[in-house]
Amino acid sequence: MSDSYFEARERELLGEQYQKMYASAQHVYRAVTVNLLRTDAQTFARSADFLEGPAPFCPESFYLKENTRPGRHPYHHAGVYYVQEASAAAPAALLNVQPGDRVLDLCAAPGGKSSQLGARLQGKGLLVSNEYVAARAQILKNNLERMGIFNAWVLNEDASHVADAFPEFFDKVLVDAPCSGEGMFRKEEEALRQHSQALVRQCSEMGAEILEHAARCLAPGGLLCYSTCTFAPEEDEGQIGRFLSRHPEFSLLPVRLAAGSPGEEARRCGWDFDASLCWRIYPCHGGEGHFMALLQKAGTPQPGRSVSHKAKPAKECGQFLDEMFGQLPGIPVQNGDRWYLVPELASPAGRLRTVRCGVELGSVVKGRFVPAHGLAMAFGSLCRNTEQLTLADPRTAAWLRGEEIAAKTAGNGWTAVLVDGFPLGWGKCSAGRVKNHYPKGLRNLG
């Protein structure tokens, strides 16, 4: 690490502990987080041969073996796991999301933490995942679709607009704040090149503003997790102290993980609070770098709102769903020539820039229903017509390359293609062959 401002600051704050916390010889860890909508952590660990072992920051996170390519594995295509740095899995787990909760991820792209939150909902309640940058919001949408999070509402909004639309609505709120990225120095040279004291100040102010909007969104009695992947006092302990000074209705709850260390009083930036209730992860702990604080808003939780609009799907759409699935959770809603299955709690005041709400079901083309890829990823394992593959089956690799494969279990017509029971998209079966409808941009080419 060569940034002179960063090194001088950290040496002053850590003293003789500096070399231990930032040891340059420390191994750079790669990890995956299991999608609990698909399977449980123990079953995944037994079936995946590319894991080094469990990571200590949350129960569904695992280190990867060296020289693995997790992004090309069939389980990745099927949304069984999300590839992310090990310590990045910790903040979402702190919120202890339960089925039926109303959950907000206010700075959600690219989607790893949102995927965790949505998986813990188990299809019940509502996840609102917001991203301010439009291009990143599309990446967020794609990742949540791959992971099969069918009760997610993906927004591309300013945090203030989200707060206006959802006052005191959410039981749990995550703010993984845009930050100066000091925890990424070892992995991303660009983060080190762009770093400066001015960037730290800018990110601190941005984080403070986002926290204010998050506080407005949180229902009485709700939990707010604030996290960063930086070590800067102004963005971490100092940010929490500043927030608590303005919000006496919030209390700081203790965070304790199997690895890491308590927040540091030397980083409070002059604010009077118990910084040791926060949590830090340094490179020496087996992650790249994270700061976390868990806050609770005073008061008694209130009942959630219910949906205010319903629609009956087009005849062709309704027939397809009845024949292939039966009853699915959500409300069918038409938008242009496409149909969506919208979560029942998705009904805020005002208009919001929506990237996707719920699951895209498909559209009617020339009198016939054409199912969307998202429908297969959300509910493919429930489909009544399936082509069953396994990891060892050579047809699996062929399918992911976009090839037509022989049918062994599917009947004629649209069929959900599964690997070990996990969805890989739609095929159309005829005369003993399954025509490939896996999206071209997702295929394993080359």
UniProtKB/TrEMBL annotation:
Chain segments annotated as coiled-coil in the UniProt record: none
Listed GO MF terms: methyltransferase activity
UniProt key word Transcription: no
GO process terms (BP): methylation
Enzyme class name: transferase
Signal peptide extent: none
Organism superkingdom: Bacteria
Annotated S-adenosyl-L-methionine binding sites: 107-113, 131, 158, 176
Keywords assigned by UniProt, alphabetized: Cytoplasm, Methyltransferase, RNA-binding, S-adenosyl-L-methionine, Transferase
UniProt xrefs under InterPro entries: Methyltr_RsmF_N, MeTrfase_RsmB-F_NOP2_cat, MeTrfase_RsmB-F_NOP2_dom, Nol1_Nop2_Fmu_2, RCMT, RsmB/NOL1/NOP2-like_CS, RsmF_methylt_CI, SAM-dependent_MTases_sf
EC number: 2.1.1.-
Active site: 229
The SAM-dependent MTase RsmB/NOP-type domain, residue ranges: 17-298
Family per record: Belongs to the class I-like SAM-binding methyltransferase superfamily. RsmB/NOP family.
Protein's name according to its UniProt entry: RsmB/NOP family class I SAM-dependent RNA methyltransferase
Organism of origin: Ruthenibacterium intestinale
Taxonomic lineage from the root: Bacteria, Bacillati, Bacillota, Clostridia, Eubacteriales
